Amino acid sequence: MLSPNNQPHQGEPLTFPAAQAALLTPYLPPPPPPSAAAGPSRDDEDEAPAGSTHSPAVHVTLTYAHSLDASIALAPGARTALSGPASKAMTHYLRARHDAILVGAGTAVADDPGLNSRLLSPRPVVLDPRGRWAVHEGSRVIRTAREGMGLAPLVLVGHPAAVVEERRRVLEAVGGRYIVLEPRAAGGRRFDWADVLAVLRREGLRSVMVEGGAGVINSLLAPPGNALVDSVIVTIAPTWLGQGGVVVSPPRTAAEDGTAAPPVRLTDVKWCPLGEDVVLCGRIRR
Ligand SMILES: NC(=O)C1=CN([C@@H]2O[C@H](COP(=O)(O)OP(=O)(O)OC[C@H]3O[C@@H](n4cnc5c(N)ncnc54)[C@H](O)[C@@H]3O)[C@@H](O)[C@H]2O)C=CC1
Ligand SMILES: Nc1nc(O)c(N)c(N[C@@H]2O[C@H](COP(=O)(O)O)[C@@H](O)[C@H]2O)n1
């Protein structure tokens, strides 16, 4: 049984073989120093982790599971299990190897996820520019934090008016909070990814695992966000979810002169079978 950084296990034991973990290592941020067990400090030196290609120094891993037809869920709002037991264990291992885990409001609303790890839990971060996520006492991420099985979320909203007082109280009672960030992208509807990473860095978070859903993934894979991605780890499940699924397919973009930009492609690619799934690791070709 593997525990990153030899931290105590949370909840039921989890097995993820060291040999498989070693295959992922080149795509992951460096392990936190043992002193990071109590959570990342907010006044760390701003030094770039090895392999980081951007500043501020936040390692970005994009990771999710999809079907053979690139769907991450059967339908909008439908929680859909794609990962088998082995790749689910990998997800918990990956979560434990990052300071933060990021999802969009659509996932928070649809899945009511725990966003913790049975190993060492990351800080959940929810992108919710318009305040769609009605977080409450019974939300899983809140219960998980209250029970000491995970960390409380940071929720990034686009305007102070998106903060509902009762939700703020619920978040803050477990140590989470709202952070207002100006949505400077997509005509004021989305955050600029560099701004999101700057917020994380200010919070002392040096690595983030971006988990989904499709809105978040497609926005991050489009330029200029994709320049900030350090590595991509995708679980491919041996199933077709069929038409009407929630699909990962970033928008086609054009260069300034109107010509089509080249498709986003991975390089430094490794394929690893994991149970009945296959895990694809790579870096975005620059
Ligand atoms: N199979 C998998 O690995 C995963 C599957 N999912 C599935 O994905 C589905 C949810 O996907 P979506 O509906 O697309 O929701 P989503 O989780 O991508 O959230 C979309 C929302 O996130 C916010 N957002 C996204 N990018 C943003 C940006 N750059 N700046 C500011 N806000 C931004 C916006 O409010 C947007 O409406 C669910 O059914 C869930 O089960 C979610 C995560 C992983
Ligand atoms: N890796 C992976 N495989 C799947 O098959 C999935 N459906 C997901 N979904 C993501 O995990 C969240 C739910 O898990 P927790 O409750 O947080 O443990 C879900 O919200 C998606 O982000 N991931």
UniProtKB/TrEMBL annotation:
It comes from the Eukaryota. One of its GO terms (molecular function) is 5-amino-6-(5-phosphoribosylamino)uracil reductase activity. Its EC number is 1.1.1.302. GO terms for biological process: riboflavin biosynthetic process. Pathway: Cofactor biosynthesis; riboflavin biosynthesis. Residues 59-280 form the Bacterial bifunctional deaminase-reductase C-terminal domain. It catalyses: 2,5-diamino-6-(1-D-ribitylamino)pyrimidin-4(3H)-one 5'-phosphate + NADP(+) = 2,5-diamino-6-(1-D-ribosylamino)pyrimidin-4(3H)-one 5'-phosphate + NADPH + H(+); 2,5-diamino-6-(1-D-ribitylamino)pyrimidin-4(3H)-one 5'-phosphate + NAD(+) = 2,5-diamino-6-(1-D-ribosylamino)pyrimidin-4(3H)-one 5'-phosphate + NADH + H(+). Pfam families: RibD_C (PF01872). Residues 1-54 are annotated as: Disordered. Residues 17-26 have a biased composition (Low complexity). Keywords: NADP, Oxidoreductase, Riboflavin biosynthesis. It is an enzyme of class 1 (oxidoreductase). Belongs to the HTP reductase family. Catalyzes an early step in riboflavin biosynthesis, the NADPH-dependent reduction of the ribose side chain of 2,5-diamino-6-ribosylamino-4(3H)-pyrimidinone 5'-phosphate, yielding 2,5-diamino-6-ribitylamino-4(3H)-pyrimidinone 5'-phosphate. This is 2,5-diamino-6-ribosylamino-4(3H)-pyrimidinone 5'-phosphate reductase. It comes from Thermothielavioides terrestris (strain ATCC 38088 / NRRL 8126).
